[in-house]
Every structure is written in C-alpha cells, then in structure tokens.
Amino acid sequence: MRSWRLALTLVCVVLLALAVVPSRGEEKILNEVPSYYWTHGCSPTAGAMIMGYWDTYGYSGMIPGSNRWSTNQSAIRDAIASPEHVADYALYDGIDDMYYSSPYTDKSELGGAHADNSLADFMLTSRSSEDLTHGATWTNEIGIGMENYTSWRGYSFTAGGDYSSIPKWTEFTHEILMGRPVKLSVDSDGDGNVDHSVTAIGFRNTYGIREYACRDTWSTSSTPRWERFRRVSVASAWGIDGMDTFRPGGTPRDTMWTSAGGNWQDSGWSTGLPDSSAYACITDEAGITISADASAGYVMNRGTMDIQGGTFTVGTLASAGLTNQSDGSVHASGSVAVGANGAYILSGGALEVDSELDVSGEFNFASSSAHVIVKDKLVLETGSTFTAVPSATIHMTGSSFENESTNSSNLAGLGNLKMVFEGGSEVINLFEAAGENVGAVIGGFVEANFLLDTLQLGEAAAGRIQLVDDFDNQSDGSSVGEAVYVNNLIMNAGATIDLSGLNLYYFNDGGPKRFFCGDADVGDLGILAGSYGQTEGMVWAGGDFTGDGAVNVADLGVLAANYGVTGSAIPEPASATMLLLGTIAVLRRRKK
Asked: pTM for this one?
C-alpha cells in the first residue's frame, strides 16, 4: 500500500472517494440515461437508451441529432428500427407476426433486404431466418449487435456479460458506480420465462432489500421503474436472467476507484498507475487532483476533478460532476463532454480537444488567460449554459460551431467571447445562425439574440466559414429568419464567408451593418453612388458600409470586394475598386 501511494504521488494523482461495494441504505442512479418508447423490439429500444447515454458523454454521433425523445422522436425511432427494417423484417408484407406460432417469412430468407442501418438490424431482431417473430431478439445477439451498431456509427465499444443467469450484485452495482448503464434480460410477467429487455440505470440496498432501477421501454417518463433484484421465478415478476455490459473500446472492464477510507481498489492496473488505455471513474462523492503528468483512455467524472498542473492526456473526458481546471494542460485526443448535470470551470491553463467540445451542462470560461483549442466541433446543446469573461477566446482550428439552444440567456457568455476560425484555406467550417433576424439595427445586437462578441477569420491559418440554420433556436418555435450578430468582425488574409442565403450583421464600433457576400449588385452600387462624398451622419442603408459615418472610397472597397461574387470567395478589392470608380462616375452623372 505504501509503495502504491508513493507511485501515485509521482504522477500527482490523489483520489478520495466512496466504497465501490454499496453500503446499507445506499442508492445510486444514472439519471442522464434517456427514456425511449418501445419501437419494434424491446432489446433495440433498451440498447438505444444506452447509446443515448453515451451520446451525451463523448460519442455524439450515436443518435443523429438530439438524444431527447421529446424533440427528436422520429430520428430516435429510426435509430432503433429504421423504416427499411420495418418493411423488410418487422412488418414484412404488412404482416404483424408477433403472436404467430412461427414467423412469417421475410426478406432475411427471401433476399433483397437493405443494408443494416439500425440497432434492430444489427441485433437481427424480427428476422424469420433467425426463427424470430415481430420484435423478438435472441439474447446472445444483443451485445454483438450493439458493438456493430457503434462501429457503423464510427466508434469502438466492447460488450460483455452473462446471458443465462442473474448477475452478481457486486458486478451489477460496479457497472452503475462506474457510470455504465447495462441491459438486463427479465421476466416481466413472472411466468418463469425471459420475455423482455430493460435498461438498468441504478440500484438501492435498503436494509438488505436489493432493487434495481430501469427504463422499461414502455414509458418515456424520467421516473424509473424499481424492481427487486432477484432471479427469474414463477413466484415473482421482473426477475433477472442475464446482463449485457457496454464500455468504450480498448478500455478494461475493471477500473481504478477508491474506498471511503481513501484506499485504492485496483482491479485493472497491476501497478496501480494510470495508463493510456484505462477506463477511470471518479464516483459520485469522490475527488481527484491532478498536478503533474497523468493519462487515461476514458475518464467518467461523476464527482470532483481538480486539474492544477502538468499535462493530462486523455482519450475522452466526460464530466457528469464538477471539473475545475486552474492550470496545467488537458489534451483530449477524442472529446470533452460536459453532461446535463456536469460543469467545467476553466480558470487557467490550456484545453485542447481534437474532436468535439460538447456541452449539455455548464461551461464557465472564467479567465481570459486560459487557452482553448477545438479541432472538430463546438456544440452547445439544448439546455446548456455558457458563461465567459470579456476577451475569452476559443481557437477553432478546423472546427464548426453548432448551437442547439433555444435559451439565449443561458448562453450570455457568447457576448464576451472571441471565436477565431483558422482551419486553413481548404477547410470550410459551419457556423449556426441562431439570432432572430431583425435586420441591421441596434436591437439585434443584444445578448438576448445570441450575440457573439468577436468573430475573427484567420490567424495562424486562413479562416473560412459557411452559415447554416440547422436548428430552430427561437423560443417561440419560429424557424424563419435566423441570422448571426457579432459586435466585431475581423477578416484576415484568405478569409471567406458563405452566407448560404442567410444574414450576418456586424457592428465594428461604427453602427449596425449587414455583411455582403455575393448579393452586392448595381442597386447597392447606386445607393453608394448617391451618397458618395458625404462626410458625416451616414448609416449603412445609405452606403456607409464601414460604419465611420462617411461614404467614401473605403465603403467602395467593401462593396467592390463582394460585387458580383457567386460563391464564398471574397476577392482582393483593389482591382474591383478601380473598375467600379468609373461606374460610380457614370451613375452620378446620370443622377444629375
């Protein structure tokens, strides 16, 4: 034990936590597991809820779009059992054979079936070739089906478990404590036969009475079903006869955790040292401090994690609890995911994310000296909170910005944030238009309209963005006329903005202005010509495209840079300016 603690001191990783074995009266539950309604099979439905959970914690492509049933029901149903699955297997030829004594022959035997594209497909659910009727799945196909589904989605996960007996209580509770929901095979009606799959999300042990909490696939309520933890029997319903576990690929099932006395419980790392393949969980009431170099493959933080120094190298960092970074460097080769109940407070140091920075909970950018790099995507999910101090900066090095929120007050920190897009001349990054399009007026430049303080295109490399309107960000449900509003727009060499028919408005200390790109035409030229030479009191609508109150050659340069452009490229203005000077002279003579 002494040598263990000495070794851990060398990497400056100190944990204080709970016991992994539940005590009398203890209750643990993974509330973040979403609840989905039965869709052509209980096993794929139960599996989808597990996918929805991991979708929140570092694997955002598990469920296309939001993992919330209330806002994305159609896509979730398709992920469980696609329309092609229903047509080829589940209800082939329009026949529901659920209560047939033998299955109705479907395309799994007749041929011509679609390529697998849903959990039900990968689990071989409903296939007559497997002697299965509508909605049925063999238990030994569930785990491998989940593995194959995640592989199809571009991830690697490992399934395991026992399909023919009740799991040990310690093994079951271990999975929950480690932040890993499981699939249980149960006898829902107490006839002694397994007939249902559920997603187990918690447990409690009240004076020796052991119970499990589950999403039963028959309700989308956030309140779980509680049942006794016991084997299948004709004497009682909801007995258990099999468990499927599920974890990120390449990580061991057993992990490092701590006991209530602070003693290490080591089942995965023979030396007691973290390594690059480890799955580590900081349990609900535990704490960990990192002040020197350390590493892990996947970290599920359900307690408190303080990063104070050194370089912490991790595959994926999932925060379901509190993560405080005051110094040091965090480098995630995968994602950093802040769950709905989690928080990440960044008051110093550097955070570098090779994949996604995905925020469902709270991200607090508490110091402008902190350094943040996101290389693939920054996602602010529905229900997320983002706060930032003035001059806080995120460098988007080939990264897109996705805003799914409908509550601008929760994202008020954007009004202090500087986003620098620098992905290079070959990369075009998507940028969500979330503000209500009220035109080039002062009223649009408010935090209540998803205002961004500074949008800078180009720094170490060129910056190119394309506006998109993929999410309805207006709380009134209106998706019409969304736009981007920024206080400061900085465009360096090689910068381009593809408006995609949307609008970007910027202030730049002079007054509200609409960004031109490909829609500057002779009408705009006529407006500028009519005011050309005015030295004060001018506005954007009168040809003051630079916002300095005057209409002169600088405004002509802005117009020329965008005149007649049909794509996203913005040409150098010099030659176009010379060409248009003559046009202005002609227009002014005609006006006379």
From this structure: 0.83
